[in-house]
Write a structure and sequence with these properties.
It is built from 1 helix and 6 strands; from the N terminus they run αββββββ. It is an alpha+beta fold and 134 residues long. Keywords: Membrane, Transmembrane, Transmembrane helix. InterPro entries: DUF4307. It comes from Angustibacter luteus. This is DUF4307 domain-containing protein.
């Protein structure tokens, strides 16, 4: 005894959508997919083009008055970036801030050591951020 499984019970799911309504639903779904795909491409390209990167290498405390911060800056060879260095005390409070300009270089990664003057004894020195100079 075979039954037809494709036939829906009459009245259970409402009237069948018209061909125009079905087509409109497909167009809306296709537009939503295109918008989502465009956003993924836009966001992916934006993340892939990071202009500047940096990493802390070390620091040397020079008493109560300064700390030397050693760090690497990765950027386009022709770019100029401005990095903000911070000296922090044991409570992680900034006791010194310095802005350093890193100009064009022969290599993509430049290692630098710069001094940060402090108002009190620091326990560390770090790079807070770097940004491409306008």
């Amino acid at each position: 005894m075979a039954t037809d499984r494709t036939q829906l019970p009459p009245g259970r799911y409402g009237p069948a959508p018209s061909p125009g309504r079905r087509r409109a639903g497909l167009v809306v779904a296709a537009l939503a997919v295109l918008v989502a795909l465009a956003w993924v491409v836009w966001a992916g390209l934006g993340q892939a083009s990071a202009d500047v990167r940096w990493s802390d290498v070390g620091f040397v405390i020079r008493g109560d008055t300064s700390v030397d911060v050693t760090y690497d800056v990765g950027k386009d060879k022709a770019a100029t970036v401005v990095c903000t260095l911070k000296a922090l005390d044991r409570n992680k409070t900034a006791v010194g801030i310095a802005q350093v300009t890193v100009g064009p270089a022969d290599a993509k990664v430049t290692r630098r050591t710069d001094a940060v003057r402090t108002s009190a004894q620091a326990v560390t020195g770090v790079v807070d951020r770097c940004a491409v100079a306008p």
